[in-house]
Amino acid sequence: MTRTALLRAPRKFELVERDKPRPGPGEAVVRTVATAVCHTDLSIYTGAHPGVRYPVVMGHESTGIVDSLGEGASALEPGAHVIVNPIIACRQCDPCRRGDTHLCRDAGLFGREVDGSLSPYIKLPAHYLHRLPAGMPLEQATLIETLATVRHAQRRVAQTSGESVVVLGQGTGGLLHTRLAVLAGANPVIAVSRTRWKLEMAERMGAHHVVAASVEDAVGEVRRLTRGAGADVVIDAAGGPKAFKAAIGMLRPGGRFCAYSISHEPVEGFSTFPLYFGEISLVGSRALAEEDMAPSIELVASGKVDVSGFISARYPLRDAAAAFEEYERNPSRILRIVIGSPS
Ligand SMILES: [Zn+2]
Ligand SMILES: [Zn+2]
């Protein structure tokens, strides 16, 4: 018997038996193969994520194999390998009608508002599934969801070839930002992190320069590397007030700041004057849009983005609790933990 890893309350997992779901019209049932867990899951696990209702079945970076399909779900067939687009949207509100389903006024996340993939089977409308090439390893393919959020942010900040791009923080999102900036022709791409092994990975992603420093201490080095001009674009994949202030200090007049990292911390003592004086653009980027999925799958399938080095540890589904204990102990030493099923 395979079981679902239900999070009853913060830090309280329970393995529960659930009947295998059956697909309704337009729905698919997918046998879960791999789920990567990220900082969003960690904050749900610890109780730090605002507005979460427990119990919850986490898991939104999810790949698997189509098991069965309901009436009308004809774009896929049983046996197809798929990844989930976890952004649940109503498809009726004004942002949805504009095509911005990720900004849905009633948006949810699969694995937070809706039961996610820390379960042997998932059921969801088939339009949330994207086909993966049959030969792509399903564990590694879980990274495509994060890659899609990164691609979305880089589209938002609209960097062009030859621009200088700084990426603050070289966790999973930061490293993928470094890679996509390089692929977009940005030059130089400057990766900032205090962690040596992450900078080594950033070099493998093609970063032209790596800066081993805190975000504050990196400001002078970015100025030097851009010959005093400042960067065209700074992408914050570190988060928090220090990164924001440092980013503003790194930008050239007319530069763009992209808030990729999720932070709830207020930026104290910051006036809008630098935005006025430097005509700085602040660009928000939330989650991913549906159209980011297919190109992100292609980036991995073509080998342009190598995600093979991003999985720090693997656990079977029955050991989900141990996986999260390890993640909470070492959040900065882990890129992605993958939880596999069946256990
Ligand atoms: Zn995530
Ligand atoms: Zn909507």
3D structure, described in words:
This protein has 343 residues and is an alpha/beta fold. The chain folds into two domains: 3-141 and 310-340, Quinone Oxidoreductase, Chain A, domain 1 (Alpha-Beta Complex), CATH 3.90.180.10; 150-284, NAD(P)-binding Rossmann-like Domain (Rossmann fold, 3-Layer(aba) Sandwich), CATH 3.40.50.720. It has helices at 39-46, 94-97, 138-141, 143-157, 172-183, 196-204, 215-225, 241-250, 273-278, 293-301, 320-329, and strands at residues 3-9, 12-17, 27-37, 61-69, 81-84, 87-88, 108-109, 121-125, 129-131, 165-168, 189-193, 209-212, 231-236, 251-259, 281-284, 311-316, 336-340. Strands 3, 4, 5, 8, 9, 16 and 17 form a seven-stranded mixed sheet that branches. Helix 8 links the parallel strand 13 (231-236) and strand 14 (251-259). Helix 4 packs across helix 5 and helix 4 (143-157) packs across helix 10 (293-301). The longest helix is centred in the middle third of the chain and has 15 residues, at 143-157. The protein is globular, with a radius of gyration of 20 Å. The N and C termini lie close together (9 Å). The structure holds zinc ion (2 copies). One zinc ion (ZN) binds at residues 38, 40, 60-61.
